[in-house]
Design a protein that fits this description.
Blueprint: E1 13-17, H1 21-32, E2 37-41, H2 44-53, E3 58-61, H3 70-79, E4 88-92, H4 97-105, E5 110-113, H5 118-172, H6 181-196, H7 208-217, H8 230-233, H9 241-248, H10 250-264, H11 269-280, H12 301-316, H13 327-336, H14 344-352, H15 354-363
Parallel strand pairs: 1-2, 1-3, 3-4, 4-5
Helix pairs in contact: 2-3, 6-7, 6-12, 6-15, 7-11, 10-11, 11-12, 12-13
Length: about 375
């Protein structure tokens, strides 16, 4: 049997459970000689308490004990998430096949009959300690591997999102020379979604994943503007009806472009939300928006949230064709359009945190 170094703080321990002190003494002295930290107890209740306080690396368990037999002790150990992986070797005078089968059925990994042979006990304990150590090392390896994979996936994901944001910002820069609109929009969307997460109406749709997605996907809302000619997109005066029809096409251009991306990443929830936002952020609650004249909850929730954030930011911004509105005026316009342009529930959420929107504008 391999000898373990007791000076090592990580030395292995064995819990011996037997109601006969002589057996505890013999087994204890033998295993101490091989560097194991021996912990003897005389009944099942003490065994469970000792294992909970300081989980051993292996357990030698008698069957015939008062109050709680070894079968019951083993079953309770295996029901405990913290203790279920500890190998249990039964040591008993019972040698009937049915008793041995019952021991394995209750969770034991091995069975030694009394009177036991010391060499046999050594061999069995050594084998199961090695197996247990290998299992522990394998679990650590798997955890480290999972962590490494997650870190790599996160690194790739963040890199992709940063690239997409840069492209969206490039498109936005054509008619927003401040370059801060997209930063504000994604913060506004996260604020609204976080507030709505506690709403009894939308709590089944909004969770941490939804909030992360809308934060990252919201900058894609106007990415279709890359397909709109400058003479229309940057026109300082009022658009003609024909020009406005061309402007409206940016929703379809953007969503169609992202749809092509989705063909490669079909289960990507971030891209799916980007498509919904790009296509539907100009839809209106009363059905008078574009491009599909959707109404009410037929409009994707992310697009309804984006609509409030986008209009507020547009109202507060100075453009060649309009002055910047005050916070109070912007809030008034949004409130008056509740139930017409905007989802009333989202307007209500906006009203609660409107001061945070104002602070975001002031900081940018």
């Amino acid at each position: 049997m391999q000898k373990y170094n007791l000076s090592d703080q990580n030395s292995l321990s064995v819990l011996i459970v037997d109601d006969i002190p002589f057996n505890l003494e013999v087994l204890g002295e033998m295993l101490k000689g091989y560097g194991l930290r021996v912990r003897p107890v005389t009944n099942g209740k003490l065994a469970l308490k000792a294992a909970q306080k300081d989980p051993p690396d292996i357990i030698l368990l008698d069957i015939m004990m008062p109050d709680m037999d070894g079968y019951e002790v083993c079953r309770r150990l295996k029901e405990d998430q913290k203790l279920k992986e500890i190998p249990v070797i039964f040591i008993s005078a019972l040698n009937e096949t049915k008793d041995i089968i019952k021991a394995f059925s209750s969770g034991g990994v091995d069975y030694i009959t009394k009177p036991f042979q010391i060499a046999e006990v050594k061999a069995r304990v050594s084998t199961h300690l090695k197996i247990h150590q290998l299992q522990v090392e394998l679990e650590k390896h798997n955890l480290n591997l999972n962590k490494l994979v997650k870190e790599q996936v996160q690194e790739i994901s963040e890199s992709q999102i940063a690239t997409i944001f840069a492209l969206a910002k490039l498109a936005e820069h054509r008619d927003d020379d401040t370059g801060t609109h997209l930063f504000r929009i994604r913060n506004f969307c996260r604020m609204l979604a976080t507030n709505l997460e506690d709403s009894s109406i939308y709590q089944d749709q909004i969770n941490s994943k939804f909030i992360d997605n809308i934060y990252n996907a919201s900058p894609l809302h106007d990415i279709g503007k890359v397909g709109i000619p400058d003479n229309i997109l940057l026109k300082p005066g009022k658009l003609t009806s024909d020009e406005f029809e061309i402007i409206k096409k940016h929703t379809i251009i953007g969503s169609d472009t992202l749809q092509e991306v989705l063909e490669t990443y079909q289960k990507n929830s971030f891209i799916n939300m980007g498509i919904a936002i790009a296509r539907s952020h100009h839809e209106k609650w009363n059905g008078s928006g574009y491009p599909d004249a959707l109404a009410g909850e037929n409009i994707p929730l992310a697009a309804r949230i984006l609509a409030v954030a986008d209009v507020y930011d547009a109202l507060r911004a100075k453009r060649v064709y309009k002055p910047a509105f005050t916070h109070e005026k912007a809030c008034e316009i949004i409130s008056n359009d509740s139930g017409k342009h905007f989802d009333p529930v989202i307007v209500n959420a906006f009203t609660k945190i409107a001061s945070e929107f104002d602070a975001e504008i002031e900081e940018s």
